[in-house]
Amino acid sequence: MKVRRLVTRPVLIAGAASGGSAVGAAAGSVAAAAWFARRLLTPDELQPDDVAIVAHDDESVTFASGPDPDVPGRYGVWLDGGSGHARVGRIIERDEAAATVRRELLAVDRGTLGVGPARWNQYYYWDRPSVSMGLPDEEVVVTSDVGALPGWIVRPEGSTPARDWAVLVHGRGARKEETLRAVPVLRAAGWTCLVAAYRNDRDAPRGPDGRYNLGLSEWRDVEAAIRTAVAQSAERIILFGWSMGGAIVLQTLRRSRHADRIVGVCLDSAVIDWDAVLRHHGRLNHLPGPLVRMARGLMGSRRGRALVGLIEPIDLAHTDWVARADELDVPILLIHSTGDTVVPFGPAAALAGRRPDIVRFEPWELARHCREWNYDPERWESVVSSFVAGLPCPPAPLAGAEASERSSDGRASAP
After folding, report:
1. Do 302 and 385 reside in the same domain of the chain?
2. Is 415 among the domain residues?
3. Same domain, yes or no, for 19 and 160?
4. Total domains, the chain
């Protein structure tokens, strides 16, 4: 998930309006709140360069100091506007006087390494599994209500049809490659991995309103991916979500027709409560609390939804899984870092506190958003491996009245 820090333009709009009439001030506040909400809901196609390479040799790359280059771990770097790619590892040297960081050069995968602007790639992997990981993969098309969604399947070794499948769901504005870090550890444990796009991805159809619905419509695309897995004999299913992908996974868990096959959920830097995210970014940008609450109200109002471009309103109460914790009923692995400045750490800790019976909470420090694996891959892979090894066999299918509670799209099971 990539949520840019919002500039303070909304405050300026409201302040300018207040210099006139009360009506003008109110109109300015509404406009500011709508702008703030649209920033969250609108897919952003821009992928600007965000780091600078100041020197390199055969063994290292030196970057201008910054939030990403300064944090330990292994990462990718997009070169030449995204057509090239390199990978870097440990920090070799920091030069405080020059404000630079020299890192180990692991590989130049594509293109030419040169001095100048580049773009940080926290995914580390840069292409489909067969290209960036050397693992056999298959292209798959998942059919959802919005159309054909492209994806990849990576199967474990052996010829026996796999009954264990993991559906991997990336975050807001991210690419499918974000999820590939989980593939080797799941594949080694015997799980078939299905990595699929969802609506409004760059390589997928738009949703009806072209806006992110924060999981409240995207879950249908994950449900379609589950159907694809079930059609290939999946009996046990793991849902694995990063950032907004975690919010999507939680909606799927509660609404899916195949919920009886879902035996576990893994969440990395997941959005547990969208209202908390909205408030967090309001504070980061010094926005007045009433303006942030107004943005929430516009998203959830049938009258206000048009101002933010939604067809259907979004009630953020449906995305608060701390409040809805009692509805969760499968083992959950929560991985989250105190260094996450995009999705606040607090809701993950709160959910773990409310449901210690099913939640395994693994807090990280220092790692930035969705970068726990980058920062400590050995620990991350060990945690995921031990979690999936302990997952149960699926319970008996739902029967009778309990099964009938689920409607055709799962809405009856959600508030």
Report:
1. no
2. no
3. no
4. 3
Same domain, 55 and 182: no
What is the reported pTM?
Answer: 0.90
With left for phi above 0 and alpha for psi between -120 and 50, is residue 364 left, alpha or beta?
Answer: beta
Confirm if 94 and 63 have CB atoms less than 8 A apart: no
Interatomic CA distance for residues 275 and 379, integer angstroms: 30
Position 1 scores a pLDDT of 55
Residue 404 domain flag: no
DSSP, res 68? T
Whether 205 contacts 146, CB under 8 Å? yes
Q: Which of 119, 318, 127, 293 is nearest to 219 (CA)?
A: 318
Q: Which residue has the tokens 């259907």?
A: 312
Measured CA to CA, the distance from residue 332 to residue 262 in angstroms comes to 11
CA distance 204 to 217: 14
Task: Give the max Cα distance, the chain.
Answer: 73
User: What's the rounded Cα separation, in Å, for the pair 280 and 258?
Assistant: 34
**Model pLDDT, residue 44:** 85
Same domain, 226 and 244: yes
The residue segments making up the domain with residue 365 are: 129-273+320-392
Residues 291/29, Cβ–Cβ less than 8 Å? yes
CA distance 362 to 89: 23
- Tens of pLDDT along 73-106? 999 999 999 999 999 999 999 999 999 999 999 9
Pick from 267, 274, 389: nearest CA to 337: 267
Cα distances from 224 to residues 136, 193, 231, 256, in angstroms, run: 23, 15, 11, 10
402-407: long-range pairs with CB below 8 Å, 24+:
406/255, 406/257, 406/259
For the chain, which ranges sit under pLDDT 70?
1-27, 159-160, 394-415
> What is the identity of the amino acid at 104?
E
Sign of CA dihedral 125, 253, 332, 338: positive
Backbone angles phi, psi at 103, to 5 degrees: -120, 155
The pLDDT, as a whole number, for residue 16 is 35
Token pair of 67 as six digits: 């939030």
Residue 401: inside a domain: no
Same domain, 221 and 243: yes
pLDDT at residue 158, as a whole number: 80
Burial 268-281 (b: 16+ CB within 10 A, else e): bbbbbbbbbbbbbb
Q: Is 407 inside a domain boundary?
A: no
Coil/strand/helix, residue 253: helix
Specify whether 253 is located in the same domain as 346: yes
Residue 258 and residue 383 share a domain = yes
